[in-house]
């Protein structure tokens, strides 16, 4: 198992990875690591490649060169079921199945994995409680939910089968500010109870500072600084990062 310089095992290790969409080169020989059991926020301006980084890690976008390791295991495309089941993914656009209730959306992967009914019920209740979703709301269909409620259902779904890696792409963005504060706190509590590697894409620098242990700043497809939150905040590596912090905090 590969480790960071602090001795933590790595959940994700990207080595010299290049990605292109047709003619557009998004990453050119990108190196990136995600430690286990810590929360890392990726920040950077629109179009710099944050969502592509998440899609690369969960196998939705193949690299044209370079290597991807998950918990030390090299991955090839398409990722196998074990690798895919080990990654939870929640996105801003939510993507709930419209013909399934909120409960059924959350429970779906566990059912496919043949979990026992009682274990499914317990896990759904636990996650719904964590995310502040009342049980009456779980019987509703996605079109009967507000954007913020649907987003929290998406978060529960991404956590259902206890993935070792959780990828969140603007996953709290539709939640109103007061509820978001509560959801942040509950999310952090859940992280204490079930630590995992979390990679959180956000445009909200305050959210990054509040939730994350580490920040990775991305600029035009490169990681320009990656370190502990306090280090990045106190010692921005260049003027671009200093401005990003100043303008958003
Ligand atoms: N499927 C695609 N086909 C072609 N180009 C794409 C595709 N997806 C993303 N891009 C382009 O790749 C670049 C990186 O996009 P990406 O979505 O990763 O950026 P981002 O940092 O997440 O942006 P935002 O903060 O606006 O969501 C952008 O220039 C985008 O227009």
TrEMBL record:
The keyword Nucleotide-binding appears for this protein: yes
Keyword check for Amino-acid biosynthesis: no
Q: Where are the transmembrane segments?
A: none
The domain of life for this entry's organism is Bacteria
Annotated ABC transporter domain ranges read 12-245
Q: Kindly give the PROSITE patterns that the UniProt entry links to this protein.
A: ABC_TRANSPORTER_1, ABC_TRANSPORTER_2
Single GO molecular function: ATP binding
Q: Name one Pfam family in it.
A: ABC_tran
Q: Which InterPro entries match?
A: AAA+_ATPase, ABC_transporter-like_ATP-bd, ABC_transporter-like_CS, P-loop_NTPase
Entry keywords, A to Z: ATP-binding, Nucleotide-binding, Transport
Q: Name one GO biological process term.
A: quaternary ammonium group transport
Q: Per the similarity annotation, which family is this?
A: Belongs to the ABC transporter superfamily.
Spell out the protein name for this chain: ATP-binding cassette domain-containing protein
Species this protein is from = Spartinivicinus marinus
């Amino acid at each position: 198992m590969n480790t960071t310089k602090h001795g933590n095992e790595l959940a994700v290790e990207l080595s010299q990875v290049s990605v292109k969409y047709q003619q557009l080169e998004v990453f050119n020989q990108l190196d990136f690591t995600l430690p286990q059991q810590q929360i890392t926020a990726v920040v950077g301006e629109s179009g710099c490649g944050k969502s592509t980084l998440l899609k690369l890690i969960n196998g939705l976008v193949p690299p044209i060169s370079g290597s991807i390791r998950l918990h030390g295991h090299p991955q090839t495309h398409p990722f196998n079921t074990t690798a895919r089941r080990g990654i939870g993914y929640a996105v801003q656009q939510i993507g709930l199945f419209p013909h399934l209730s909120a409960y059924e959306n959350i429970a779906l992967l566990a059912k496919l994995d043949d979990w026992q009914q009682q274990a499914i019920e317990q896990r759904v209740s636990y996650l719904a409680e964590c995310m502040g979703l009342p049980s009456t709301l779980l019987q509703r269909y996605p079109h009967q939910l507000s954007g913020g409620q649907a987003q929290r259902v998406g978060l529960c779904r991404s956590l259902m089968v206890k993935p070792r890696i959780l990828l969140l792409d603007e996953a709290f963005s539709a939640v109103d500010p007061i509820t978001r504060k509560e959801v942040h706190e509950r999310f952090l509590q859940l992280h204490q109870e079930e630590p995992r590697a979390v990679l959180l894409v956000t445009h909200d620098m305050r959210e990054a500072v509040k939730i994350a242990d580490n920040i990775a700043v991305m600029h035009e497809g490169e990681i320009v600084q990656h370190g502990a939150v306090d280090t990045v905040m106190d010692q921005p590596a260049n003027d671009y990062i200093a401005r990003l912090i100043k303008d958003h905090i």
